[in-house]
Every structure is written in structure tokens, then in C-alpha cells.
From TrEMBL:
Transmembrane feature ranges: 42-65, 245-264, 271-291, 322-341, 380-400, 406-425
Domain of life where this protein originates: Bacteria
Protein name per the record: Integral membrane protein
Species: Amycolatopsis thermoflava
Entry keyword set: Membrane, Transmembrane, Transmembrane helix
Length: 448
């Protein structure tokens, strides 16, 4: 029987034309470049991570402002060392001494004394010679007063007075920022501090030391410039918002970073980018602090430049500590995520570490070091132990009251060392990977 099913039915002219048209369309589609699809997931992750990294420096600033204003103990701890700085003590001593001699006219006192002597019958030759001593007498008195004031300013009583004033100032900080304070005034574009308490203390000490004319000093209120007025105005405008945001903005920034890492298609790459982004933000704030320092120091008179610079450094030192801390955390997170990745560099580093640990293990085996059942147990629970060490490191960091950037680096190094010890102890059971022995049995793997 002839199989007619295998015979090909010839195509008609219309069918052949349609087939040629379809082939041409397929060929055109193959030659057309593929349309690039927008990966909305990656785009969303990038936007969220960028927003989180931008909010992190702002969150750090809000926390610092909140601590300085709302926490009296922190405020006193920040500003208390200012009065103990030699440059600040010198500036205050010069200003107080000048104020004293504004109200104690030595030449006038000398003329009055000579007039009294003349009236008492002292010969003119004697009074004329005494008149010639008026200049040296004034210089000696000025030096005496300056030394006494310097001793007062550098003494413990003024330091205690300064600390009490700071506590009072901290309680009145809201009044300062709202423009209702009388202790801090704005004059000629400068924020000035009232020195009346120092003048009163210096007057009392001078009178007790025998310089009775100091009692003539009235109740005056000289001031000293402490910063530029524009700084106070900006603080007034941003204080309310920053103080309210201090409690929730850091958590919002952390949540955005965590969400961005979760949404990203490549979590490890996103984590690396987040760590580097946060560190970069800290560098930007640090640069802004340096620029602000230069502007503020340049706005004060030249004789107060050193004191202004020292005061600024003391005020922002806790902020700088926070910048170093967050900067170190960002770098450690980024570096850890990178070394855990599949890149050639990361794989090479891990392989080199494993080889070094293997060399140490073999050396220990030759020296007779044995772990017994510890090695197989570590091998069976290796992943859990690694996460446990990471959790312990996080708990140690969280439990510290005032961690620093150096603390973060030390914790990271200790964690790396602990992971290395764990890798050193990792030893599978002999039956798992030991090579076969000559009699067909399983050769025990070397243990250390």
C-alpha cells in the first residue's frame, strides 16, 4: 500500500506569498534592537536609598541639637571646658582688666593724693617727684590688677560660677532661641555674653586683696562677643523643627535605608551603596563644620580669634564624635558586604584567609593540637555560630553608653578575629571527607 500521507501538498501562490511576508517580519524583528525596559524595582530602591542617606546627616544634626538644648548635663559637659582654656581665660582677663580701669582713673587719683599732700605742707619738690611716678605707678597697678584678675579667672571659684551660669543658661535656652533672654543680647550683628558676674567677683576679690578703690566700680554689664548674630537667627528659625524631629528622624532614615536594601534586586550591592552613602554624608557635614569655623572665627576681632576657635571646637566636639562614629559604621558595613560578595577581589581575600587558617591548622596538627569533638560540632553549627558572633558584636555596640568611631573599628576587628578562630576550629568528621585508606576504610581526617 502506498503511504500518501507523506506526500507534501504544494502551496498555492497566495500561501507562498503569505509565508514570505511572515518570514520577512520575523527577520525584521530579529534585527530590531530590543527595547530597554525600565526596572522600576531598581529605580525605586535607588530613590529610597538616596533619600535615606541624605536624611542620615540631618538626623545626626537634630540629635546633637536636641542633646545640647534639652539635656542640661550634656550642655554643661560641652561648654564647661571653655572657661578652662588658656586662650579664653586670657581674653576674659584682658576685658575685665580694661573694664576695671575704665572706672579707676589712676592719674586722677594720683593728682588728688598729691593735692592732699601739698595741703598738708609737703614741699613742692617732693610732690613734683611723686608726680613723675604717676606713669610707672599706673603701669604697676595695671599689672597688679591684671595678675589678680588672671588668678581669679583661672581659679576654681570662677569655674564653679561658670558651671552654675551654664546650668542657668541651659534652662533659659528656649528663651534665648525665642529672643526673650536678657542674659544673651544681640548688638552690632554679634551675640554678646554679659560679664557682670565676672566683674562683681573680680571687684570683691580685689577689695579683699587690699585694692580698696576697686569698690568704686559700679554695677556694670560689659559684654563679650561669643558668635555672629546670624548664627543665632538661623538657630531660632530651625530650632523648633529640629527639636521635634530629633526623636523620629533617625529612625525614619534607618527605615528608609533598610527598605531600600530590601527592595533592591541585588541586596548586597545596595548595602554597599548605603554604607558608602552614609559615610559620604558624614564627610560632607565634617567639611561644612570646617567652613563654618572659618567664617565664625573670621567674624570676631583679631584678638579674640584664638578664643573663638577654641570655643567653637569645644562646642561641636560631640557632633564631631558622632560624625566619626556613623562614618566608621558606614565603612564597616560597606566593607563587610563587599568582602562577602562574589567579586574576584572578595573571593581572593576569603580564599587567602582560608589558606592562612589552613596553614595554621596543619601546623597545629603537627604540634599535636587536637580539638576532639569540638571541631565536628563547630562544623555542624558553623552558620548559626557565625550569626551568633555577629549578634554578639551588635549587642556589645548597642550596650555601650558612648561608643566612638574607634570603638566600632575595634569591635569589627575582634569580630573578624573571632570568625577566624571559628574557621580554625571548623573540622568535619573523619567519615565526611577523609580519603580512603589502603585497606579500603576511611582514613581519618587530620584534626587540630
Amino acid at each position: 500500500m502506498t503511504d500518501t500521507s507523506s506526500r507534501a501538498t504544494p502551496l498555492t501562490d497566495g500561501e507562498r506569498a503569505e509565508l514570505d511576508r511572515l518570514r520577512a517580519e520575523v527577520a525584521a524583528l530579529r534585527e530590531r534592537p530590543p527595547r530597554r525596559r525600565i526596572r522600576w524595582r531598581s529605580l525605586a530602591a535607588g530613590v529610597i536609598l538616596t533619600l535615606g542617606c541624605l536624611l542620615m546627616p540631618v538626623a545626626l544634626l537634630t540629635v546633637w541639637v536636641h542633646n545640647q538644648v534639652a539635656n542640661t548635663d550634656r550642655f554643661v559637659e560641652t561648654t564647661s571646658p571653655i572657661i578652662r582654656e588658656p586662650s579664653v581665660q586670657t581674653a576674659i582677663t584682658d576685658r575685665v582688666t580694661a573694664t576695671v580701669f575704665e572706672y579707676v582713673n589712676v592719674p586722677e587719683l594720683t593728682s588728688d593724693a598729691l593735692g592732699v599732700l601739698s595741703a598738708q605742707g609737703v614741699p613742692p619738690a617732693v610732690t613734683d617727684r611723686l608726680q613723675g611716678l604717676a606713669g610707672p605707678l599706673e603701669s604697676s597697678l595695671r599689672g597688679f590688677v591684671h595678675d589678680r584678675v588672671a588668678g581669679i579667672v583661672s581659679g576654681p571659684r570662677v569655674a564653679e560660677l561658670w558651671d552654675r551660669s551654664l546650668r542657668t543658661a541651659s534652662e533659659q535656652m528656649n528663651a534665648v532661641l525665642s529672643g526673650q533672654s536678657e542674659a544673651v543680647v544681640v548688638s552690632d550683628g554679634e551675640v554678646r555674653l554679659d560679664l557682670a558676674p565676672f566683674i562683681t567677683e573680680a571687684k570683691n576679690q580685689l577689695v579683699q586683696s587690699g585694692f580698696g578703690v576697686a569698690s568704686r566700680i559700679p554695677d556694670v554689664h560689659p559684654t563679650i562677643a561669643i558668635t555672629d548674630a546670624t548664627t543665632l537667627e538661623r538657630a531660632k528659625n530651625g530650632y523648633s523643627l529640629l527639636d521635634k524631629a530629633a526623636t523620629w528622624l533617625p529612625w525614619v532614615a534607618l527605615a528608609l535605608i533598610a527598605l531600600g536594601v530590601y527592595v533592591a534586586r541585588h541586596h548586597r550591592r545596595a548595602l554597599i551603596g548605603a554604607g558608602l552613602g552614609v559615610s559620604l554624608g558624614m564627610l560632607v557635614i565634617a567639611a561644612a563644620l570646617l567652613i563654618t569655623r572659618g567664617v565664625l572665627v573670621g567674624a570676631v576681632p583679631p584678638r579674640a580669634t584664638v578664643a573663638a576657635g577654641v570655643s567653637y571646637d569645644l562646642i561641636v566636639r560631640f557632633l564631631r564624635d558622632g560624625l566619626r562614629l556613623v562614618f566608621a559604621i558606614g565603612l564597616v558595613v560597606a566593607l563587610g558586604a563587599f568582602l562577602a560578595g562574589p567579586s574576584a577581589t572578595a573571593v581572593g581575600v576569603r580564599r587567602g584567609a582560608v589558606k592562612a587558617i589552613g596553614w595554621l591548622r596543619r601546623g597545629g596538627a603537627k604540634a599535636g593540637l587536637r580539638t576532639g569533638p569540638v571541631g565536628p560540632w563547630v562544623h555542624a553549627h558553623l552558620t548559626a555560630l557565625r550569626f551568633g558572633l555577629l549578634g554578639v558584636a551588635v549587642l556589645v555596640f548597642v550596650s555601650l553608653s558612648s561608643p566612638s568611631g574607634l570603638t566600632v573599628l575595634v569591635i569589627a576587628l575582634v569580630l573578624v578575629f573571632a570568625l577566624g578562630v571559628l574557621q580554625f576550629l571548623d573540622q568535619p568528621r573523619p567519615a565526611d571527607d577523609g580519603p580512603p585508606s589502603a585497606d579500603g576504610g576511611q582514613r581519618p581526617a587530620a584534626t587540630v
